[in-house]
Fold this sequence. Notes:
By secondary structure, this protein is α/β, with parallel strands linked by helices. The chain has nine helices and ten strands. The strands form two sheets. A six-stranded mixed beta sheet has the order 6-7-8-3-9-10, with helices on both faces. A four-stranded antiparallel beta sheet has the order 2-1-4-5, covered by helices on one side. A hairpin with a 2-residue loop joins strand 9 (205-210) and strand 10. Helix 3 packs parallel to helix 5 (139-151), helix 4 crosses helix 5 and helix 5 runs parallel beside helix 6. The longest helix has 16 residues, at 169-184. The radius of gyration is 18 Å and the shape is globular. The two termini are 31 Å apart. The model has no long low-confidence stretch (mean pLDDT 97). Bound molecules: adenosine-5'-diphosphate (ADP) and magnesium ion. Adenosine-5'-diphosphate is lined by residues 11, 14, 16, 34, 36-42. Magnesium ion (MG) binds next to helix 1.
Amino acid sequence: MIHINNLHKHFGDSHVLRGISCDIRPQEVVCVIGPSGSGKSTFLRCMNALETVSEGEVVVNGFAVHDRTTDLNKMRESVGMVFQRFNLFPHKTVLENLMMAPQALQGMSRSQAESLAQTLLEKVGLSDKRDAWPSSLSGGQQQRVAIARALAMNPSIMLFDEPTSALDPELVGDVLEVMKNLASDGMTMVIVTHEMGFAREVADRVIFIDQGVIQEEGTPEQIFTAPQNPRTAAFLSKVL
Ligand SMILES: Nc1ncnc2c1ncn2[C@@H]1O[C@H](COP(=O)(O)OP(=O)(O)O)[C@@H](O)[C@H]1O
Ligand SMILES: [Mg+2]
């Protein structure tokens, strides 16, 4: 579903991704871990063309992201992305936030978009907030709305960049729960996270990135209990 071959990314003089290759299968849940500044966000952002690819191939859902002639808007419609910050439209209600993209980009009627939005709010446990303003919600609730909003486009891949890092600790669990449900529904997911317990429980595969390189990857069991690379072991000893 995602094919990445020898991906390099430069920002000016800094060589941030240094030859990353990885393939992600349909319905696979991949957690990406690693120190701050190691290139995790850049890696994820290259997958939906929020960053240009300096060198190498990135093919997502059949779209060659590295190819400048590819219709990137079409590609992005099939890839949902959730960031650390929720980026909800503050002047729209929760329901309206969910209804906008399907109407504007998929030509859905207002009533279709509304019923889809209601279904998705149920899925993330926020039916009672449909008419609320985003600013009246907790960070965790806003993040669940952001997830529902991404799902409204019916994506086949969901990318998450530290979706719980900005949340108060007591709000993290509800967001992770929504992500767990998505995983068990069979969504293909790539998740940059510092939630090691979550990665261990939900990931099919864990990728450890350091200095712009995949230093090690494997099942959560392999990575968390028997890391082969000293860098992985050193990182885990700090975060576990
Ligand atoms: N738009 C940018 N311009 C210049 N440097 C950037 C940009 N985005 C990220 N970087 C640099 O690339 C490196 C990797 O960043 P990032 O992918 O955000 O790491 P991580 O998500 O693992 O913390 C960092 O040194 C960061 O400063
Ligand atoms: Mg990051």
